[in-house]
């Protein structure tokens, strides 16, 4: 069996393979490390960090939907200071690119978080969350505003030498306009997509099933939407894309790469099968061998329409 | 903590729509403690998508037993499992009951399917401590006594035991409870646990409760199952990782 080159390039970032673990689905890495060898995966994106700790939303935060789940965690996190003190030492033990996801309520907070974290050598890059649907301030207000996304990208980029990835919202009509703004403002890549806004009600009590009323829909239910958004960006803007949205197995990874993703992130799947990343890597290698693919990155953008 | 496929040995209906599933799982049986839980994927397909958390009902050398009632599609699929089909299990998860301590009588307080963790609990403790079991439900159909001993019952409709709830039952037995060095262990609906908290604080009884919350992963990565902490109001505990068993004084119910 020939050796397959699984490595991928995402702008200035080189990963040993395209499998990354998505923010909000791996905590700070310690729990999932019991199931997945972090030294083998492409990268890990930590839970959204805000400048100060956030308690998050009250229960109920999660509800299952057809082929998906709604969550309204509310960006619960330990804050930048505690992350550097308590979480980084564990992550440093692994040979895995560490991407810090940053969430904020103001442009200034995005900038301040990035400025502080950029001084930590073990952080490889930043993913800026401009699209969380579950917080009252910031979140989607930014993600729905092209000018705001451009401004955040430009400001954050100005305080860090590290690559900046902007995580885009699917809750817009034309996502490529946002990707274009990111590129023109100096962003290095986009990740697409964040969760879709959804809700679910109890038909007997007539009350929402999650406390926040609306939540972010993830899981296989959103995969066709995510694929369409990745394809739209690929066709319209020359910027590296990290594909996210309902990836459940190696076939989904290939599908995302065909429509234009250079790498992908596993999200909801981590809850259901926390060992999935390792299994998918083996299966991707088998796929390449079976189809005579020597370099997996050749699959990116290989769609035929 | 393991993730593995465990073969089903049998599924029996204990009562109306209440099932006991026996799975072969020697990897977990030696590790697990009463009050811990398993997160079970009932189907290999995308439906239902999420795992289901179940208390470990009982354990023998090679087997785990799960007790559940049919509430939705997930439990319906589980109840139909045949011998040698497998279920995908993550476990053992969470913190179980603390069986150590200076008490000579374990008082079990269970509401409905909150009885699930107590057959294992009873077997583990019965040779060392006296056990008193108080079970409550809306009617006799909700009363599960499987694997328990020294049982007193209350039903809200009066169809079995005392007419009232399980707190009325405890109140009725207060003298007996006070004459022993007791610790209360409970699992059941949140309303019952809330009333039990008031009762135990008023009477100065030590009490641990097993709590519930919708969750996805079961081991701390989804952050989906918060419960208010009394000690740290600025952050939540997670039911899956910090619980599901808490000292009743440590959480707001």
Description:
The complex is a heterodimer of chains A (305) and B (253). Chain A has 305 residues and is of the alpha/beta class. Chain A has helices at residues 79-92, 107-117, 140-143, 146-158, 175-184, 223-236, 250-258, 269-272, 276-290, and strands spanning 8-10, 13-15, 19-21, 43-49, 62-65, 68-71, 98-102, 125-129, 164-167, 189-192, 196-199, 214-218, 241-244, 263-266. Chain A has an 8-stranded parallel β-barrel, surrounded by 7 helices. Chain A has a 4-stranded antiparallel β-sheet with strand order 5-6-12-11, with no helix packed on it. Chain A has a two-stranded antiparallel sheet with strand order 1-2. The longest helix of chain A is centred in the C-terminal third of the chain and has 15 residues, at 276-290. Chain A is globular. Chain A starts with 7 loop residues before the first strand and ends in a 15-residue tail after the last helix. Chain B is an alpha/beta fold and 253 residues long. Chain B is built from 6 helices and 16 strands. Chain B has helices at residues 26-29, 73-79, 118-125, 166-172, 174-178, 190-203, and strands at 2-15, 18-24, 37-41, 52-55, 58-59, 63-69, 86-93, 105-111, 130-137, 151-155, 162-163, 182-187, 206-210, 226-228, 236-238, 245-247. In chain B, strands 4-3-7-1-2-6-5 form a 7-stranded antiparallel β-sheet. Chain B has a 7-stranded mixed β-sheet with strand order 11-10-9-8-12-13-16, with helices on both faces. A two-stranded antiparallel sheet of chain B has the order 14-15. The two termini of chain B are 28 Å apart. In chain B, 47% of the residues are buried. The mean pLDDT of chain B is 95.
Structure summary, number of beta strands of chain A: 14
Question: Distance N terminus to C terminus of chain B?
Answer: 28 Å
Largest sheet of chain B: 7 strands, antiparallel
Greatest chain-chain interface?
A-B, 37 and 30 residues
Following the backbone from N to C, one meets helices and strands of chain A in this order, namely EEEEEEHEHEHHEHEEEHEHEHH
Supply the helix-strand structural class of chain B.
Answer: alpha/beta
Low-confidence stretches of chain B: none
Number of beta-strand segments of chain B? 16
pLDDT averaged residue by residue of chain A: 94
Placed side by side, the strands forming the largest sheet of chain B appear as 4-3-7-1-2-6-5
**Beta-strand percentage range of chain A:** 15-25%
| Through-space gap between termini of chain A | 32 Å
Mean pLDDT of chain B: 95
Report the principal-axis shape of chain A.
Answer: globular
Fraction in helix of chain B: 10-25%
Number of helices of chain A: 9
Shape of chain B: globular
């Amino acid at each position: 069996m020939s050796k397959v080159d699984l490595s991928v390039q995402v702008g200035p970032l080189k990963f040993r393979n395209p499998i990354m673990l998505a923010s909000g689905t791996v905590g700070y890495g310690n729990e999932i490390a019991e199931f997945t060898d972090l030294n083998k995966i492409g990268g890990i994106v930590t839970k959204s960090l805000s400048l100060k700790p956030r308690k998050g939303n009250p229960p109920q935060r999660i509800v299952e939907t057809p082929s998906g789940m709604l969550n309204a965690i509310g960006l619960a996190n330990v804050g930048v200071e505690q992350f550097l003190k308590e979480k980084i030492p564990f992550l440093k033990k692994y040979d895995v690119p560490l991407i810090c996801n940053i969430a904020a309520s103001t442009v200034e907070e995005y900038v301040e978080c990035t400025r502080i974290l950029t001084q930590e050598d073990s952080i490889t890059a930043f993913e800026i969350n401009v699209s969380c649907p579950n917080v009252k301030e910031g979140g989607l207000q930014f993600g729905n505003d092209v000018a705001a996304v451009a401004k955040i990208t430009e400001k954050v980029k100005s305080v860090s030498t590290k690559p900046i990835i902007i995580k885009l919202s699917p809750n817009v009509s034309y996502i490529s306009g946002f990707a274009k703004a990111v590129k023109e403002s100096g962003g290095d890549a986009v990740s697409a997509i964040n969760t879709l806004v959804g809700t679910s009600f109890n038909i007997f009590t007539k009350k929402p099933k999650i406390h926040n009323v609306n939540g972010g829909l993830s899981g296989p239910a959103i995969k066709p939407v995510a694929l369409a958004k990745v394809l739209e960006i690929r066709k319209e803007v020359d910027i590296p894309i990290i594909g996210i949205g309902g990836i459940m197995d190696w076939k989904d990874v290939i599908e995302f790469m065909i429509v234009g993703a250079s790498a992908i992130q596993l999200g909801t799947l981590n809850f259901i099968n926390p060992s999935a990343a390792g299994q998918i890597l083996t299966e991707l290698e088998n796929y390449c061998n079976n189809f005579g693919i020597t370099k997996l990155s050749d699959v990116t953008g290989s769609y035929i329409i | 903590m393991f993730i593995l496929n465990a073969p089903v040995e049998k599924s029996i209906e204990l009562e109306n729509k209440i099932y006991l599933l026996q799975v072969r799982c020697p990897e977990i049986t030696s590790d697990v403690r009463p009050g811990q839980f398993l997160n079970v994927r009932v189907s290999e397909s995308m439906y239902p998508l999420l795992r289901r958390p179940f208390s470990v009902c009982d354990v023998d050398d090679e087997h785990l037993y799960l007790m559940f009632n049919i509430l939705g599609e997930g439990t319906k699929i589980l109840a139909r499992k045949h011998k040698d089909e497998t279920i995908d299990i993550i476990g053992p998860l969470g913190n179980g009951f603390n069986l150590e301590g200076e008490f000579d009588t374990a008082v079990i307080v269970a509401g409905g399917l909150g009885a699930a963790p107590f057959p294992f609990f009873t077997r583990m403790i019965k040779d060392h401590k006296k056990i008193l079991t108080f079970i409550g439900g809306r009617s006799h159909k909700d009363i599960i006594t499987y694997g328990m001993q020294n049982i007193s019952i209350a039903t809200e409709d009066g169809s079995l035991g005392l007419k009232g709830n399980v707190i009325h039952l405890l109140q009725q037995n207060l003298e007996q409870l006070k004459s022993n060095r007791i610790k209360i262990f409970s699992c059941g609906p949140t309303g019952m646990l809330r009333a039990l908290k008031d009762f135990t604080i008023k009477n100065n009884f030590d009490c641990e409760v097993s709590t519930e919350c919708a969750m996805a992963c079961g081991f701390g990565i989804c952050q989906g199952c918060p419960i208010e902490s009394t000690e740290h109001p600025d952050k939540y505990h997670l039911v899956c990782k910090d619980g599901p068993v808490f000292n009743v004084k440590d959480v707001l119910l």
